[in-house]
Amino acid sequence: MQIGIVGKPNVGKSTFFSAATLAPAEIAPYPFTTIKPNHGVAYVRTKCPHTEIGHVCQPRHGTCEDGVRLVPVDVLDVAGLVPDSWKGKGLGNQFLDDLRQADAFVHVIDASGSTDCEGNAVAACSHDPMEDVRFLESEISHWMKGILDKGWEKAARMAHLEGLKVHELIHSKLTGLGVTEGAILAAIRDCAMPDNPLNWSDADMLRLCENIRKHSKPMMIALNKADIATPEMLEKMSHTPGYISVPTCAESELALRKAAKANFLKYLPGAESFIVNEPEKLSAGQRKGLDYISQNMRRYHGTGVQTCLELAAFKLLDLIVVYPVEDETKWTDHGGNVLPDAFLIKRGATAKDLAFKIHTDLGNSFIRGINARNKRVVGHDYVLQDGDIISIVSKK
After folding, report:
1. Is residue 50 scored above 60 in pLDDT?
2. What is the fold, at CATH topology level, of the domain defined by 320-394?
3. Which residues are CB-neighbours of 284 under 8 A, at least 6 positions away?
């Protein structure tokens, strides 16, 4: 699962990325600081089942802290997008190509209204952040349409002659974007396209791509620089139709993560407060800075960065966490490690889907699953529940 951090230049995308992952990224107050995409790993939180059996878990990936399992997710920070990027303006083509495999987007905007549409610094509140939401929607939709348009008439005729269904034709052209047939079918249904694809107008194609974007690349909004935004702007942006919006202070999160790593203070991402280890050693400037961060965390219930990641995973993508084990009695793998893996998987997935996610051979040789909590046998069509611990039995 990959989350793409998107937005125009100079709104704090790379700061958000570094705060989420602690991976290095060049950060500077001018457009196009990010040229090549930055890749990193962040973590989403869930309650760990190891507390139920009284044995400490041994994660193969991620960690577990005080009964909270930290499950890794891939995060991608790309070059900033400007209007008409789909035509190649700015670093547009590179930006869009880098985002092909992202499953969901966190759109970072400058909620203070202090960067224009090109990412240049302007007076606070002089730019309407709603414009950024609209233009990003438009850029991605036009990008998809540009891919569909290439050779469309010829491909549509061939599809008609060969009896290929229109959603299969579209899927063949958009498969490199990670778009599923299900998303395409839902988009066609939602926008009531004309029966004959040869008669689709430019407006029809753009409308279809807008709906494909909504179904295949869900997006939420990080209202960054919330600490310097006006309450009125935050209130307005928090109710953007069709979006989840979260006030964020990425600079504060990054400062806290670095300070915690240096053992200067105790802080867990997503928490609403922190504890300074040796407050008597603080300078006046440090005390003032931490007080400022603390006040904003109380106001916004944290810095918002971790909240964005978890809403993207658990709400936008509707994922659940499932723990595959080999020994259903001890909840271990063949090496005796307790709950070594935690998989993010789509809600509605089955036991057999889990087997395929572990390994193709395991899916192909699937016989049955065992629910490790109640030791009941489950079939291939058993629908997984959040927090399930499942052992897969396969043909030897």
Report:
1. yes
2. Ubiquitin-like (UB roll) (3.10.20)
3. none
